[in-house]
User: Fold these one by one.
Assistant:
Number 1:
Amino acid sequence: MITKTKIVILDESPLMRKVISDIFSKDVGIEIVGMFKNYYDMKEFLDKLKCIVDCIIINLIFDKKDLLNILLNLKEYGVNIIFVANIEPERINFAQQNLGVKNIKFIEYFGKLNLGDISQIKEEIRDEVYKIKNSRVKRALFDVQKAIVIASSTGGPKVLEYIFSKLETKIDIPVFVVQHMPDGCTKQFVERLGEVCNYDFCEGKDGEVARSNVVYVAPGGYHMQIDFGKKISLNQNESVNNVRPSADVLFCSAAKVYKEGLLGIVLTGMGRDAAHGIKCIKNSGGTTIAQNERSCVVFGMPKSAIETGKIDKVLSVDEIIFEILKHSGKL
């Protein structure tokens, strides 16, 4: 079965969208999955998309501020970008050198496009796309991205503090935590973790795009979900497992986004929250861990997760730290 190279085209000109798509119309190994005339429609499409995208081809005119903001936003997706740019070389140099934007290729032209320009641009686009196709270093929007989700309740704050105080190496992936706490208490908890651990901690904010090396804690009274595009969303829907936030809500949503790149961890706590979420993670190809009984204050949540038959490993807290480093590629 052919693994197709998937492309999105962003160009306000219907003619240029057709010109670019026609370049690859006879190649069965390349698929145009979307064509758009404005950035915001394309971004909405990317946030909802459930397949891998290898490359975005952009031909739009932006002012300097909009260009930089758009490149920063697209950087979050980790996708190759071919930018057909009628912009000054100094802007291109600034973007490449100062934004840390990788996998971006600028194809420059000046003034109005004529037939000779279009022919030259077609050749350069073709060359760049085939470099992406032929190299195996493709950047998926979702499937190859990694993340960690953690559920904890009674006894959890001390365990979480211990884990992140011992993680002196940055793991370069986002972490999402549901710690059962009364409304209004998570803010103080997050501040405490930030004081004693070598990571950035914050309460999850609705609409925020998740960043590496940040630990997002679900705010008390809100379910926290991860949507496509690594966006955090909060809601006050009914309690699940008699709790809000619920780890089941977080785990199941994250499993859809990160799939085999997700590590789910169930720590000490009372009740059954996270048991269904563990099944979602495992069924999506992810890895699952439960804290062992000996190191738990309350073994309820890990025990329920283990009883699903979907837990890969039952470990002590120090062993869990080792697995976090291993999952993140730091060991």
Number 2:
Amino acid sequence: MALLVSITAGGTIGYMLIERWSPWDAFYMTVITVTTVGYREVHDLSRAGQVFTVLLLIGGVGAALYTFTLLATVVVEGGLPKGLERRRHQRMLEGIKDHFIVCGYGRIGSIVAERLLRQRVPVVVVERDPERLHAAIEHGALAVDGDASREEVLKRVGIERARGLIAVVGTDAENVYAVLSARVLRPDLFIVGRAETEDATIKLKRAGADRVISPYQIGAVQIAQTALRPAVVDFVELATSTDNLELAMEEIPIAASSVLANQSIIEANLRQRYGVIVVGIQRHDRRMEF
């Protein structure tokens, strides 16, 4: 494109200098020459003008064909749509807020992202594997190719506007670095980390994770509970599932300015007013009351 513009500008200036034509006549003559339209000359050409026209044809026609070929290739091979898609993706990243950043889209990360999306919670996935990155996009999540432990990547996915971060990368070391970087950027961010070992659990907590989850431990406890109390496990799963419309278990924060603050459960009259049952209350010190 720059080559074609340069030749058009050069041809216009050349006709103005050689033939003493006006800028418009010189530009018009250059365009019909380069595009080989074949209209007659704007004015009669001198011998010098004819020589210049021959040179302009030789150089300009080739440049025009090359430029048009490149443009056609961009359109046919999807370069233009891909460019538009990248710009759209960047605008969505710049506008997203109250989202969860899921670091890693492996077996656990994909399930986490899918559950969040089912509850209509915005998700941005950070992943380095191209296939996993493509899978995340296909399942409706925004996805960014990058290392979750790098601060510039976390800034790119909007950590300053995020609701929380979930570190479920492939190794414990990567999770520790991701949590540490996120905590440095956002001291108030809610962070969940995955750990495979007890040592990693300690390190993740020191790095700044608010909660540390061990899939192996949770899986083992779930198996034992299912064996001992299958009906209870079924009830909890039903209550926490988003597919059930008749029964749902939710966590509701009560702000100091709320009308429910400093009231007992009886005084709040929640069951009669809202049709809800309070199962437990967590105090500021994370102590649970049932």
Number 3:
Amino acid sequence: MDIQALKVFQVVAKMGSISGAARELNYAQSNITTKIQQLETHLQATLFYRHNRGITITPKGKLLVTYAEKIFQLIDETNRVMKDDQTPKGPLIIGSMETTAAVRLPVLLSKYSHDYPKVDLMLKTGPTDQHLYEVLHYEVDGAFVSGPISHPDIAQKTVFEEEMVLITDMNHPPLSSIADIQNRTLLVFRSGCSYRAKLENMLHQEGVAPSKIMEFGTLDAIIGCVAAGLGISMLPYSVVAQQIQDGTLRQHQISTSYRKVETLFIYRKDKYLSTPLTKFLELLE
């Protein structure tokens, strides 16, 4: 199989068009078309339907996308294994929830960067669902996510335990029960955030319906809008401890069954543990 043709196919599938792939790869469209035709001839399979609006990937094409991802990941891993002389160096991509990155990781990442200056450390923030997908698809080396996680391809270790609290503005009266927040606006991260899912699940179990849900992209925005009285949220105490102590936020305890949340570090079981990742795991011990 022509690896270059497979790479062209992968980019066409990702971009959804011949012209998009041509721009991405800086190839002539005719060269892209030729590579796809050569690959289809070799595999004796139609990978894309052609029509007036462009192309649509076929079921066989979708299957090849999965295998292509594995092939290129294995090629990349082979190169890394062969070049790994047990000296921590090269890229290390770590995913993290924004709350964890803001409070738990600064000291850890600083120490790692100081101890291993030749490692090109990159941090990507986002919700748990996003990072689980990225780990499974080899897009990050590992990630800090909210537990529990159950997947046969995932290795995990517990690194932190968070205490969750409901937060409101200072003018909000103390809560005698969760029903007291009936018809309030929830201020949350986008779908895929595990803390949002836990809050929504808790309210559902208690029969409480929020009047509105407002999504935010940053932690600072949620904290600022809660303090301004726009709505309520649920976050780890470690994230909002300073604001609570400063008197800009009021905390409210929640039931024990929802209070404790584990933060896990996850990575693929079948992934080669590069020296940079091995040293990072050692730092988490």
Number 4:
Amino acid sequence: MQYITSTCNNSRIETQTQRSPLQPPMKRTILTLAAAAATLFAGAALADAKTDSILLNLKVKYPATTFTGVRATPLQGIYEVQMGRNLAYVDESGRTFLFGSMYDMEARSDLTAARKTELGIQDAPAPQQQRAEAPPIKWSDLPMADAMVRVIGKGERKLALFSDPDCPFCRQLERELEKLDNVTIYTFLYPLASLHPGAPAKSENIWCAGEKARNKVWIDQMIGGKTPPAAKACATPLERNVALGDSLNVRGTPTMFTSDGRRISGAMPAARIDAWLNAGK
């Protein structure tokens, strides 16, 4: 920004000097300051237009997610996006997201942590162990009555899934799960209300569609993009599922567990899921 401003200032001084060599120094100074201010305002307007455009694009692409702000970062082409009480980074297209911390290595500072402090965002209490070191779960402790059950093929392999109906990554995963064979999938509805305000209501409508219809309504939502129809109110396991996820250190969706207690998070190709399931044999 300083280089651009300096170049414009020099150009303006040269032009004004050619027109009137006898201009007083004070007038030239005022003109220089005015040019600098105009350049700064123009740059700010362009930056605001860019971030406003990205924010609008994100809201159109992911209408179920609450985006509250976008701003530029020190990395060219990468923008900070605020989703409720969460921060992430996104490219201009809104297709690629980065989750984690951004560091200034020369200043040795965590830019993400500083930004969260500025916004008053507090992270969830850190677990006693890092996620990578999370101990295997005990499969028999999972309350399968609180999950939707889907059997593909013989269903000999077992997979527990924590998923949010409005999570775009969960939708990607569902397309891959449909390609698997010989697996029983236990889906625990796990709406992240802070990110997806409409997810709890959708989860309730999916569950209350009844045992025989739940899977179809779920697939229609996740793959077909059809909003679950309103269902008659019923008792749901949603609060228990959220508490269960917290106890298992589920920090995001989708998160999957195998019958031998291993976990993996995120959307991934069917081939990788298949290999992961077979690794426990």
